[in-house]
Amino acid sequence: MYAKSMISSTSGTQPQDTKRNLMKKLIPTLVCSAVAALFPALASASCGAAFCTVNTNWTSETALADAGNAFDLRYEFINLNQPMSGTDTIAIGQIPHHHDEVRTLNRNVVATWSHSFVGGWGVSVSLPVSERDHIHVHNHHGAKLSENWNFTELGDTRVTGRYQKALLADPLKPALAGVTFGLKLPTGRTGVANDANSVAERSMQPGTGTTDAILGAFYHQKLTASDIAWFAQAQYQHALNTRSNYKPGSTFSADIGLRRGLTERLGGLLQLNAVRKGTDSGSEAEPEDSGQRTVALSPGLSYAIGAQTQVYAYYQHALYRKVNGVQLTADRAFVVGVSGQL
Questions:
Q1: pLDDT of 6-33, one tens digit each?
Q2: Is 291 exposed, middle or buried (0-12, 13-18, 19+ CB in 10 A)?
Q3: How far is Cα of residue 171 from the mean position of the Cα atoms in its chain?
Q4: Pairwise CA distance, residues 49 & 43, whole Å
Q5: How far does the signal peptide extend, from start to end residue (predicted)?
Q6: H or E stretch including 67?
């Protein structure tokens, strides 16, 4: 399904039954170019919990116009090691804080399962596991004490529904449009401590402890003659409650991307990813050092290893970052994964 289309052009005199067969073939392959989970990314907090913003599930949400299952399994590497204030890079400790953040290394595995029902309805479940290594300097009565946390933990689960509709005005340019809606559930722990029994800051914990509402919209189209598929997607996430005196800021993300067939199995990928995150609130939050705006460019490649399975890799590079207060950021992130239909 990831191979280049065999049809490069079609005349206006094509028989009607051939057109119908073409439409049946194009619908399930509409967006079989890359698969993504709906996680905000290159997210920088004062401590540095982060997921990559690359959208790799934009196919599994919409590719299945007929009933069926899809999956996506991805690995992310994000090394937050550059302190910033506003749009300026700064040295560690250049702006005095109670904690001088040094580095947070994020290694995430995100698994997504998606099912489409007859009639355009579908559901997706995403589950992350994060390995996080964080170091900061605790400025305590003139002493500089190095503190670190290293843990591997289950994160917050996302369950989203969707409704999608095929738009087939032109069988050579089939499109899908739809909406997504759902919840982020508080399945991740919020009280992880290090060997010294010091509990990590809330923004670095595996879970936020809150239930968040998720609402989004998407549009996908395949241009068969040029073997290009493109998408646009927007999503808003808002915490519905406060947990243990902490509430994460709301997040708005927008993505636009395309896939271009390079060979029968190889595809070139390109995305532009933008995220705006509001400030955290509550006595356990750090509102002055949370909230940011980021824009990143994400080129990549995908390769079909079967009729319904592909592997992919993305390199994400930050184009613009503006943070509140002092926060750790990453210049780049890396994503590799496999996706397909079951």
A1: 223 333 334 444 444 444 444 433 333 3
A2: buried
A3: 30
A4: 7
A5: 1-49
A6: none
Handedness of CA 283, 288, 293, 296 (dihedral sign): negative
Residue 220 C-beta-side C-alpha neighbours within 13 Å: 29
Q: Hey, which residues does 140 pair with through a beta bridge?
A: 143
Q: What is the DSSP letter of 136?
A: E
CA dihedral 63, 65, 70, 76 (to 10 degrees): 30
34-58 pLDDT per residue, tens: 333 333 334 444 555 677 788 876 5
In the chain, domain spans:
16-341
Bridge partners of 71, per DSSP, are 113, 340
Tokens encoding 228 = 């290009």
Q: What is the pTM of this model?
A: 0.84
SS3 content of the chain, % helix, strand, coil (to 5): 5, 55, 40
Domain 16-341 has CATH 2.30.42.10: no
Among candidates 36, 1, 74, 26, which has minimal Cα distance to 225?
26
- State which amino acid sits at residue 22: L
| Contact indicator for 40, 251 with CB cutoff of 8 Å | yes
Phi, psi (rounded to 5 degrees) for 319 = -95, -35
The rounded distance, in Å, linking the Cα atoms of 275 and 25 is 35
Under a CB-based contact definition with an 8 Å cutoff, are residues 137 and 145 in contact?
yes
Max Cα-Cα span within the chain: 83
Eight-class DSSP state of 248: P
3-state secondary structure (DSSP) of residue 20:
helix
Number of C-beta neighbours around residue 169 at 10 A: 7
Identity of the amino acid at 269? L
Alpha-carbon span 35 to 109, nearest angstrom: 14
- Looking at residue 59, its amino acid is T
CA dist., res. 26 & res. 11, Å (int)? 17
DSSP 251-309: EEEEEEEEEEESSSSEEEEEEEEEEEE---BSTTS-GGG--EEEEEEEEEEEEESSSSE
